[in-house]
Design brief:
The chain is of the alpha/beta class. It is built from 9 helices and 17 strands. The protein folds into 3 domains: about 240 residues, Metallo-dependent phosphatases (Purple Acid Phosphatase, chain A, domain 2), CATH 3.60.21.10; about 60 residues; about 50 residues, no CATH class. About 30% of the residues lie in helices and about 25% in strands. A 6-stranded mixed sheet has the order 4-3-2-1-13-14. The protein has a 6-stranded mixed sheet with strand order 5-6-7-10-12-11, covered by helices on one side. It has a 3-stranded parallel sheet with strand order 15-16-17, with helices on one face. Helix 6 links the parallel strand 16 and strand 17. It is globular. Bound molecules: manganese (II) ion. The site of manganese (II) ion has 6 residues, from loops. The site of manganese (II) ion (MN) has 6 residues, from loops.
């Protein structure tokens, strides 16, 4: 039995900002659906960050419903959990849940096991850092309930970062994840990654299209064969992804670089995103350079200013780490500092900040987190 596993589709990214780039996420999602149909998977798991925003524009929802309907018509079940991009701070029904209401998909983020033929699937939606203890308890409960179903392959679906895997940051540690599952269908990291957990295999397929500049340009989905003793993953690379190019140069050498880029255009693929970092003594107008390439590239020019002494200003250090350090100095507690910076501040910058941020603070207070 082969199942499809995808994650972090971020449908609706760039909506209202860049029509061309908005399409990239729809293209990658549709391509993934085509692969699942062509390869006759039994079911598809989406590990969250289905949408880019909890308040999506209509097109993102249309593309999502069309894709999932296509699977449904072929008898392929779509099981999903939710990531932080799908969940609003204002308590309301997350948009992807409408798939469940329509009967074309099954939400598995409640911990309730779902049995499909010879697999049992259970998951949890994204939990925040301050909810770590609750998440660990729920995970143990999910493992206990799933262990009661005999003779089936066991799959858990999560949208969490795990510490203890490479240099990744997460809300819980890899060691907090209970053993007893055959496959750990993970989402959140946009970098593909596989790991062992007990006798099982865990995998982040990564985003279907890169979101942040540092995300890998090559993206993929997983076809997971559960028929053997151990799961086997076949990684399928997606072809519709927009290429990206980064170049460092100096203002004096910019013209040469522009000519080189203009002559290295490859047709029959998407216009690459191009990031040009130009070292310069003083700010300059980047528009003529951007205009000269805009038919063939989506150009961003970043100016790196030299100090008067000739020393190049360093690229920004790890801003998050520095913010945590400074905030911790003021508040006197690292957990509170991280809550303030990564959750409360984000809620406060939302349009509906009053409701969302108040709700967040109230919940944390009620549940006695952060003392
Ligand atoms: Mn994501």
């Amino acid at each position: 039995m082969i199942i499809g596993h995808m994650s972090d589709t971020h449908l609706g990214a760039y909506a209202g900002k860049d029509d061309e780039r908005e399409q990239d996420y729809y293209d990658a999602f549709r391509e993934a659906i085509e692969v699942f149909v062509k390869d006759h998977v039994k079911l598809v798991i989406h590990s969250g960050d289905i949408l880019d925003s909890p308040k999506p524009y209509g097109t993102a929802m249309k593309v999502l419903v069309e894709g999932v309907k296509l699977l449904d018509e072929r008898g392929i079940q779509f099981l999903f959990t939710l990531g932080e991009h799908d969940i609003s701070n204002v308590p309301s029904t997350p948009h992807p849940y409408l798939l469940d209401v329509l009967g074309v998909a099954k939400y598995v983020g409640t911990g309730e096991p779902v049995i499909i033929d010879d697999v049992v699937v259970a998951g949890l939606h994204k939990h925040k850092r301050v909810e770590r203890e609750m998440l660990c308890k729920k995970l143990d409960e999910v493992a206990r309930r799933v262990s009661q179903t005999d003779g089936k392959r066991r799959i858990v679906v999560l949208h969490q970062g795990l510490t203890g895997l490479r240099e990744f940051v997460g809300e819980i540690s890899k060691d907090d994840i209970p053993a007893g599952f055959d496959y750990y269908a993970m989402g959140h990291f946009h970098v593909p990654y596989e790991f062992r957990c007990g006798k099982g295999l865990g995998a982040y397929p990564g985003a279907t299209h890169w979101v942040d500049w540092d995300d890998p340009e090559t993206t993929s989905i997983n076809l997971v064969d559960l028929s053997g003793d151990e799961p086997r993953i076949n990684i399928v690379r997606l072809k519709t992804v927009r290429p990206k190019i980064e170049k460092d140069t100096k203002l004096e050498e910019l013209d040469g670089i522009l000519q080189e880029l203009a002559s290295s255009i490859r047709e029959n693929r998407k216009k690459p995103c191009l990031l040009l970092k130009v070292e310069t003594d003083r700010p300059f107008d980047p528009r003529p350079s951007e205009d000269s390439l805009k038919n063939h590239y989506i150009v961003t020019i970043r100016q790196v200013l030299k100090k008067v002494g000739g020393e190049v200003l360093q690229e920004a250090p790890d801003v998050n780490a520095e913010l945590v350090r400074l905030t911790e100095n003021v508040i006197g507690d690292k957990d509170k500092a991280e809550f303030a910076l990564f959750e409360l501040l984000k809620a406060l910058s939302d349009e509906d900040w009053r409701k969302g941020a108040l709700e967040l603070v109230w919940n944390v207070f009620k549940e006695g987190k952060l003392k």
